[in-house]
Specification:
The protein is an alpha+beta fold. Helix content is about 40%, strand content about 15%. A six-stranded antiparallel sheet has the order 1-7-8-10-9-3. Strands 2-4 form a two-stranded antiparallel sheet. The structure holds adenosine monophosphate and magnesium ion.
């Protein structure tokens, strides 16, 4: 049997390759990628395949069960007539220029064309590349499950994201110091095959600008426009500016979606910012449980909390500024670039307001909506209040029954006994204002509920849920993984048989490693 995919390779055909084919760690200049062969896994075994992604790539469900599929997605063999490669990119990490980074443990297999769509297929954790720096090019089971489940969950929540095709065990052991505290241990190695129209990041452009390599920068930007923004037309200074405008708009849409569903990326470095505005590189991400603007799941960032929930929209702007600086070399019009960034500042506020209106079921636009929302954000943080449960249950409130608010949202409080005195008063006032605001709405209770339930998910991949799937998988049991994979395909549906997942984080998970505390070690 042959895996029958329509491989095409735009990236390697149209962009300059590293002339050195030796797989040694080094600085790679004047090239967008280096050819590299995946490491042969010791004893690969399949954990899970996405039937939907198989179909998207023109494969059948049966193909996913075949040993040839396992060989390809574990890096054991390479698809015929393809030459895998790792991309060269740089990045700003935690606010500082970090120089060359690149695909240190991601290997692109090929691009696949099916139904007039083109998908890049990439293995994460399939061995070292010239960009691996001091690390091993591998990934462990826990972080691979987190990426596999979360990218698909995000897709079904309507958040732009890279996708996942499969997850396999490599059969290799991988050494990791989970909390960077001098206690390394061996873990199971795993490989996720992931899929996106492109895995290009801001850092792919920054690296050439930082090296003064205008020629390669222009080649890459022209390539990106031709293949991913073809409607912008023939490259010119005007096209480059339009390109930057589109990247800005797409990145803004993405981050507003993150805020809507309570997703915290955790490592918003410019090497983790997709040029297509996709959520990319699922590392120490997390989901808000208690609504808290200051929360970040990333223990590596626990001091400065640069990438906390509340600052994500500002960080996108900072990252766009770095991209603007790189593209300036081609555009040479700082005022025009600044205008786009200034417009982002306004648009992101407008976008967030519209998003929050939709979460509250407000159809009309009224003058003091921003105040109502600001007040809500404050009152939500007075005592630990579960974001997902709060907004989902809020849809059950009936107009003119706001005095019944406590019963409606009680389940969202982690400590309902704290909702007394001033906290209770604050809530009561907020609900009075909300009721007043609802009274000028045209929607009936039912219409409002339906609209709200389309933007406020019932099920998200809570941090402890991923951990339960990981713990079971570590013991060779993939049932929880599959259950969550299926559940999260319909995050807005009631799914009454799955109500156990519509619940607050259990107490045992509050301070557990992997649930509320995650590091970049993966
Ligand atoms: P991240 O912030 O996790 O997206 O990774 C930042 C950079 O480190 C990227 O260039 C990754 O390819 C690289 N990297 C992360 N983990 C590893 C690893 N285990 N082996 C090699 N490179 C890695
Ligand atoms: Mg990354």
């Amino acid at each position: 049997m042959k895996l029958n995919v329509n491989s095409i390779d735009r990236f390697t055909k149209e962009l300059p390759a590293d002339k050195d084919v030796d797989n040694s760690r080094r600085q790679v200049e004047k090239a967008c990628f280096s050819y590299v062969t995946p490491k042969s896994p010791k004893a690969p075994s399949l954990i899970h395949v996405s039937t939907e992604m198989l179909t998207n790539l023109g494969l059948k469900e049966e193909d996913g069960k075949h040993s040839e599929f396992l060989d390809v997605v574990s890096g054991k063999t390479v698809l015929p007539n393809t030459k895998p490669y790792a991309m060269c990119y740089g990045g700003h990490q935690f606010g500082n220029w970090a120089g060359q980074l690149g695909d240190g443990r991601a290997i692109n297999l090929t691009e696949i064309k099916h139904n007039s769509k083109i998908w890049a297929l990439q293995l994460k954790g399939a061995g070292e590349t010239p960009y691996s720096r001091t690390a091993d090019g591998l990934a462990v089971l826990r972080s691979s499950i987190r990426e596999y489940l979360c990218s698909e969950a995000m897709y079904y929540l309507g958040v732009p994201t890279t996708r996942a095709l499969s997850i396999v065990l490599s059969g290799n052991k991988v050494l990791r110091d989970v909390l960077y505290n001098g206690n390394p241990a061996y873990e199971k190695g795993a490989i996720v095959s992931r899929v996106a129209p492109s895995f290009l990041r801001f850092g792919n452009y920054e690296i050439f600008a930082s090296r003064g390599d205008k020629t390669t920068l222009k080649t890459l930007v022209d390539y990106t426009i031709k293949n991913h923004f073809p409607h912008l037309g023939i490259p010119s200074k005007k096209t480059y500016l339009d390109f930057f405008q589109e990247v800005t708009t797409k990145s803004m849409d993405m981050v507003i979606h993150w805020q809507r569903v309570g997703f915290v990326h955790g490592v918003m470095n410019t090497d983790n910012m997709s040029i297509l505005g996709l959520t990319i590189d699922y590392g120490p991400y997390g989901w808000l449980e208690g609504y808290d603007h200051n929360w970040t799941p990333n223990t590596t960032d626990s001091r400065h909390k640069r990438y906390r929930y509340g600052t994500q929209p500002q960080i996108v702007l900072w990252n766009l500024l770095q991209l603007a600086k790189a593209l300036y070399v081609l555009i040479e019009d700082a005022t025009a670039l600044e205008t786009i960034l200034d417009t982002y500042r306004i648009d992101v506020k407008v976008g967030q307001l519209a998003m929050m209106r939709s979460k509250l079921g407000l159809h009309n636009t009224e003058n003091f909506d921003d105040q109502l929302i600001e007040d809500l954000e404050k009152v939500l943080q007075l005592t630990e209040t579960d974001m997902t449960i709060f907004f989902r249950n809020l849809a059950n409130l009936k107009k003119e029954q706001s005095n019944n608010w406590f019963n409606t949202i009680e389940d969202a409080f982690y400590k309902p006994q704290e909702v007394v005195g001033a906290i209770k008063e604050n809530w009561t006032n907020w609900f009075k204002n909300y009721e007043k605001r609802l009274s000028v709405e045209i929607w009936t209770n039912e219409e409002r509920k339906n609209a709200m339930n389309k933007v406020n998910p019932k099920y998200v991949l809570r941090n402890y849920m991923a951990q339960l799937a990981i713990d079971a998988a570590d013991n060779g049991d993939y049932k929880v993984l599959d259950e969550l994979f299926v559940l999260l395909k319909k995050p807005y549906d009631e799914q009454p048989k799955s109500l156990k997942w519509f619940a607050k984080r259990p107490e045992w998970a509050r301070h557990k490693v992997g649930c509320s505390m995650l590091s970049c070690s993966s």
